[in-house]
Each structure stands twice: as C-alpha cells, then as structure tokens.
Amino acid sequence: MKTSRHALLAAGLVAAISLRAGSPKEDVAAAAKKLGDQPSYSWSTTTEVEGVQFRPGPTTGKTEKGGFTVVSQEVQDTTVVAVRKGDKAVVKTSAGWKTADELPQPGGGGGGQDPAVRAAMMGRRLLNAKAPADEAGGYADKVKDLKSADGVIWGELTEEGAKELVTMGRRGGGGGGGNAAKDAKGTVKYWLKDGMLSKVELKVSGKITGRDGEERNMSRNTVTEIKNIGSTHVDVAEDARKKLGLQ
Description:
The chain is α+β, with helices and mostly antiparallel strands. 28% of the residues lie in helices and 36% in strands.
C-alpha cells in the first residue's frame, strides 16, 4: 500500500513538472513577456557586418512600460535619436524633430554616402525598431526548431526567415538589384536570467546583389544585451514631447 502511494505521488510530481515545463519557443515568449512587464529596462546592440559598405554603429535604447522609448544609433559622425510613445514617433535631425513623413526621401541609389540622407534612412529604421521584449518573438517565429540547455535557447533560421533577416525585410536583397538574398542561413540564440531575456544574438549570412549589379557574400552578427531592468529612467527632450503633441 505504501509503495503504491509513493508511486502515485512520484507520478503526480512528474506530471506537474511536465505541465509547468513549456517548449523552448514558449519559454522565449514567456521570458520576453516577463521583460516587457518590467517597469523599465535598457539595452545596447552591436553589429558586425562583412560584405557591405555601410557599417552600422552601436545602438542603445531605453524604455518604460506604458511610457517613452528612446533609441539612438551612431551613423558616421552623427548620432540619430528616435523617440516613441504609443503609435507616435519622431526622430531628431539637423533641422529639428521630424516624423517619418517629414524625413527626406532617399534617391534611386538608396542614399549613397550623403550623411544627411544616410541619417534619415537610419532614422526611419529607428522609428520602426522594436524593443527587445517585442522583437524576440519575431525571431523565434523564423526558427526551424529551438533547443534549450543551461539557460540558453538557440536554433537555426528557416530559409525564408534567413532571407528576410539578411535583407532586413527590404525588397531587392538590400542593394537595389531586384533579387532576393541567395543561400541565406542563420541562427538565433537567447540567454535567459531569472526567467527574463538578458541577451540575444542573431547571425545571418547570404548572397546579395548590390546597386552595382554585382553579387557578393555578406554576413551580419548582431548582439543585444539587456540591463538596468527596473532602474532605467527615460529622459525625453522637451522639443520631442512638443513634436509628439504630448506637451
């Protein structure tokens, strides 16, 4: 009788653990949600690129739950800053704070090396950039199969997911040549701490066609580290608040 009771208790414990343990994809979603539920956090992103002329500078971000999100990135000798709250967003330019519709449009060559146009292009990207808690799930949806061990979750991207991330979702393979990325592949890796995302690494590579019509190999390694969870304070310039119509 005692043996049978112990066996039933053990079976019940195993069942309870199994019910609590989600799939790696569910763990990523839960870790992203827990991070997004925090009062605030900061992040920094570094990107190493090979095979393309443009070298993006480091990106930093701060966000408060239900409040402002501020993202900045170094572009050549300029720091581009974007501010968002809800569905409103503005970016700082040499002519003041502008909405996406007010930014200068790139020419047919994709902006060339003109600093002002390049800054405007990066400003648009920052206006659409997602905070890590919102972006993590999007990466996970592009993975064949996620695996988990020792607090790290990783997986290989699907071919379509890799193509999209190689070209950053742009048409024409990112170079204006009209062809999608070829031989695209990549991996995504998540680090979790206290049930929350603490670091994300995305590696992608493939062949793209440049504006000159030449096909070349490219690779990009992006690492985002999350910090100051709950202690981040977001300062927003008064002019940005006015442009957003919030003051």
